[in-house]
Structures are given as structure tokens and as C-alpha cells.
Amino acid sequence: MAKRSSLSIRIVEGKNLPAKDITGSSDPYCIVKIDNEAIIRTATVWKTLSPFWGEEYEVHLPPTFHSVSFYVLDEDALSRDDVIGKVCVTRDVLTEHPKGYSGWRNLTEIDPDEEVQGEIHLQIALLGSEGARKLRCRVFEARDLARKDRNGASDPFVRVRYKGKTQESSVVKKSCYPRWNETFEFELDESATEKLCIEVWDWDLVSRNDFLGKVSIVTVQLAMSVNPWEEGWFRLRPDKSKPGVDEGNLGALQLQVRLRDESVLPGSYYQPLVQLLCQEVKAGPKQDGKFPLITLIDETTTAECRQEVAINLVKLFLGQGLAKEFLDLLFRLELDKTDEPNTLFRSNSLASKSMESFLKVAGMQYLHGVLGPTVNRVFDEKKYVELDPSKVEIKDVGCSGLHRIQTESELIQQSSQHLQSYLTDLLIAIAKSVRTCPATIRATFRQLFKRVEEHFPEDKHKNVKFIAVTSFLCLRFFSPAIMSPKLFHLREKHADARTSRTLLLLAKAIQTVGNMDAAASRAKEGWMAPLQPTLQQGISQLKEFITKLIDIEEKEEVDLLKAQTLIVKEGPLFIHKTKGKGPLLSSSFKKLYFSLTSEALSFAKTPNSKGLARAALGSLRLFLSIGWRSAGQRGHLRSPGLTCRIGTRQVTLPAVSLLKCVNELNQWLSALRKVCVNNAEMLCSYHPGVFKGDKWNCCHQKDKTGLGCDKTRHRVTLQEWNDPLDPDLEAQLIFRHLFGVMELMSRWASTRPIRAIFSAPSPISADPQNMDTPMRLFQVLQDLEDAHRAALFNTSAFADRDKNSLLELQT
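Below the sequence we write its predicted C-alpha cells.
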């Protein structure tokens, strides 16, 4: 049974931040760290002390994580960014709020003694007989210690305290991965309640030593345990002996964080549930008087969780190759309930949410190709665009060369020309995108067009079948992406006020074209009148586009599905080459264009040139985020990057500033981790340094081919639209939801006039194939719940033993 944990993070806004610039304001942004690994960087909100971000992220991470920290910084163009404060939310706090933690948290000052990281390898043993026992502490090594010196490393040593006595180890110079292999002994007083404290410090010649973390061991528990010794890696913890820093004077951060832990069984356990759902989709809505199982799920799913259920179902059926059939079933069920064409697919039903999720999962790359050039043009030009007379601001635009201010009518006319230009470019891009639209989306729209045409055959409803397509493509896909390009990964930063208004007007225009009723828009918002000719022309273009989009033969559809390979990530990277040996070691970089698909990693000189090499995913053995490195005798630092080893070749991301590249860096890192999750030869340890002279500069080991001094981190990933499908996880999420509402489903089904079924789920001994569909579903859900309980019982004994033997020794 595999453990899967995820964090849903929403960084809402900040308030009452201190001013860090001479203008009396700040340019705040947030960095999110899982334990000590920077994962997310929000956009910068310029010149404000009350920034609004509204950014959402889904992070998959190991169940052993300890905390998530939010650092608020002020961006500076010419100097180092100022740190304003941080908020730390521990795993324990998140566990206490199963529905998610939400609220304001005061920012606190960053105390260097609390900014610790890394682990230390210890062996604690009791020696001798009763009355003359000794406590022996052997310190082997440490890894991933904080870097406290200007050279990008530390000079760590260990200080061991027990019963008022202190012993110290030797100092290991310039290393965050020191090896000591030293032993310390103390007389043990079994009646005493004192703890063994192991502290790690950075030695400094001139200034005071820097604290790197500590471990406290409860020796009484060790004396009472069966084994007289314990050995393992202990996480270094901060020093909490200092009084807390006053809160409130650094402002506050509003957050929404939810932790979800899933226990995923082997795939064979989910096959009965998956097969039952697939059979229901293949059977369609007519099932001899029985209501479809999808209807049961739809009616018992609340609005609060419908979006989540929809995307889980879409991913499940995509993995089974039945996404088109699943959506077609939803279309027909929705049409059976709709007599008024004006309300078709306008509610947040399971059909609407599922189609919306399907477009985001299957069509995001298509969206970028269609909207990207126009959205980038709006951002780059930053033109003033306003058609509403009540919102025109004369002072924003003027003709200083002519020494006069433009009139309101001139501004509106000029704005109309700009907006028409953007809209025309966008409509042309849509019209030319027939062949680039994913085959699965084309086939789904063809089914939707056909079903609506069959349900509303009258000539007066001739536009309804087109509007059904545009209600999803324009209103739920294109328009939201135009209004919020960052949320759809079209831009790295939020738009400023002027650009945001232009995007809003452009999104309104696309919505009007999608509604195919320019006259109604003119009656509602008369100031849109200057766009009427372009809107009318756009409606004709969109109809022609949809006609071509759905005009696809079955054979062509299959060929397109086979030909289209999902690109997970692409862009320029740098090949890192090492020249020379010994003290004359030097490095060089060669820029190449890389493409990562679900099958391989390939690269070429340019995006359009012939590929130079192609490596199957199975040959990828190591990828990691590089920290600050010493690049010369003067202590200059090379910025961090991303390293990927393909056989013997090493690939490195361009060196750029840590805080400003964290998103791009982690997108590559996350993508590589996901596609290589099943690689059997993935390395579990590595050397974060380089072999220089006769030793590794990170841990000073002289064995060039030996095991690495640090463990690889391959568990933290960002959820994105192009994630590889995980059928077992999707099935588990669907099971969790259905089992939670099983009683509600039973009550709803028992009230249906079509067929009376039992009022509460119970164990069933009959042949499942002869049961009613709801009864079979309830039996499958109960079997899965029993399997979870059995797996949990079998693993709990081992987990309790490990927890009691080692973790409880550390306080």
C-alpha cells in the first residue's frame, strides 16, 4: 500500500506589510518552501503594502514532510531582495484541520537559529552493567547542512551535552556534508531526567559561531527499551529556547492550505470499481428502465466537491480510453433534462464541470498556441483601452507633443481600434487552429454537436448546436484564460491594472462571439457598439471554424490520436561540460533546445532543427536541484540550476538568480520526476559537489565512484495540466468520494420510482453480476474499504515499532 500526500495551497493576500523602499512602499512576492526546498514563487505585486495574489497550487510530496513555510520578500532591481517575514504551518497543524486550514497568520521575523536544515547520523548506546553504565554517542556524519559562510559552505563541528558536561568534535572545513566518525562517552545516571543534546555549529574564526541545528535524545526511554542502542538519521531541529518574537508589526498573510493523505492499494484492487464505471459508460443512458450510475453520482455530489470529482472521473476515463464516451453520456443525460436551449450547459452540473476539466487536461497546449501570441502582444504594448464612457480617464493618455489632451470620443475611438486589432488577430488564430486542435477534443465536440442537433432539430434552433460548442470553448476555456493568463500558465506574472482592463474587454468580446448574439450584447452594454462589425464577422468565422472542427472522419481521428504525442516540457537548456583535471578543473556550457515527452528526452540545436540525440526515459538516472556553489578562489557564487544525468552525459539548466528562477527550475524538476517515477535504476544518493583534485568538495571523500553523501529528493512535484495519468490514484480518489456519500446514494436511489432498492448498504452474498447497479457499486466500495482496513492493520505494527524505537527518542 503506497502513501500519497498532497498539499492544496492558495496564497490569497497580504496586509499591513512594512515599507522597504524609499518610496514608502514595497514590491512583495512569496516563496513557498516544503521543509527546506523552495517549490513556488508567486508573482510580484508592485508598489503596495496590501498585495493580492490569489494564486493556487497543488503539490504532491512525501508523507514524511514536516512543514510548509511562506516567505514574503520585497523585490529590488539593483540590490538583494529584502526579507520581510515568514509564516510556518506544520504538518501537525494541517492534520488538526482535515477540511483545510484557512485564515490570517501574522508574519514573524526570521531568526537564524530557527532556519536550520539537514540531518545527522547518530548511534546512541548504553554500555556496562547496572550501577556502572555509560552512555555512548557516536557521531558519524551530517548532510545538507545550512550554508553560513560567504564561500557557500560551512565549517561544522558537533557539541555534545549531558548532565552539565560538554564535549566537542573536530571542525570539518568547507563542507555541508561533514564526516566525523567520533565517539563521546558520559557516565549514565539512570535516575536523572536530563537529555542528551547533540548540537551542530558552524565554526568562525572572528565572529561568533553560527547555530546549525540540534537533536535532543531522551535517554530514559532508551534505558527502558529492549534494545540497548539505536542508530539512524535524525532531523536537525531549531533552538526554541529563546522567547518568541513579537508578532503583528510585520503584517499578515491570508492562506488556505489543505493536506490530503491517501493510501493507494495495488491496481488490481481497483479493477472491479473501474470496470463497473466503464461498463456504465459503454452502456449509455438507456438501461432497461434503470437509471445510470453516473446519474446517481451526479445527484449525490455537492457543488463544493463537484469540480474535484469531475476532474478525477475525466482522468480515469482518459486512462481507459473512454473520455469521449464518458462525456457523450453526460451530454445526453443533460439534454434529457433540458427543454430550454438558452440554459443548455450554463449550470455548474457534472457535465459542465467534466467538460471544463477535460479541456484543461487535454487542451492546454492548444490553448497556449492559440491565445499566446495575442496575450503576449497585449502585455508588451500596454496600450490604454477603454470603451465605457463612465470609466474613461482623460489624464491617462495625452498628446504632449501637440500640447493638448485627447477628448473622450478620441480615446474611445482609439481604444476601439486597438481592441479590434487584438480581437481580429485572436479570431484569425482560432480559425487557423483546426488542425492543431487535439484529436480527442475534436471528436468530443463532434459528439456534442451531433447530440444537440438531434435534440433541437427545429430550424429556429439552428444556432444552438454551435452555441453548445462555444459555451465550452469560448466561455469556459478561452475567456477565463484571457482574463487570468497567469492561472493558465500563459504568463509568469499578473497583469497590471491597464493590461488587466484590456484583457477583460477582450474576454468580453470573445464571450459575445461565443454567444453568437451581438445584438443582445449591444442592448446590454451599449458602449460595445464600436465593435459590432468585428463581432458580427467573428460570429461567421467561428461558425465556419466549428464546422471544420467537427468535420472529421473516424479513420482520420484514429490517425491523429496516434500521431499526437504529449509534450510534457520543452525549452532551452545547457549542456554542462567539464574540462581538465585536478586544480585546473573548468566548466563550459552549450545551449540546446530540449523536449521532454511521455516517452523520451530529446534535444537539438534549435526548435526546428533535426534532433541531435534522443534518450529513453529509462536512461535518466539522476535529476536534482543544485544549490549555491563556489566557482573560484575569490568566493564568487554560481547560481543554482537543474542537473539531469543521461547515462554519462550531464545536462544543466542555465545559471540564473535563485529566487527569480525557482518556478522554471521546479517545473523542469517536477516534470522529470513525474515521467521517471517508474525508472528502476534511479540513483538514491549523489554528490552535490564536484570531484576536484583528489576528493569531492562537498564531503571530502576520496572515492570518486562511491555512494553519494546526500540522498536524492524525487518526491515533491507540482500538479500541472500535462501530468502523466495515475490510474490507481484517480481510482482511489473516486473511491474515497463515493464511499463518503454511500449512505446518501442509497437513500437517493431508494426513492426513485423506477426501481426500489434497499435503504442502506450491507454485505451481499449473491452473485455481483446479478445485482442491480447501485447494489454492485455498494458491494465494490465495501470490498475496497475492507481491503484498506486489512492493509492498514498489517502495516501499523511495523510503523508503530519504528516510531517508538527511534522517533520518540528525539524531542
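The domain at 119-235 is CATH 2.60.40.150 (Immunoglobulin-like).
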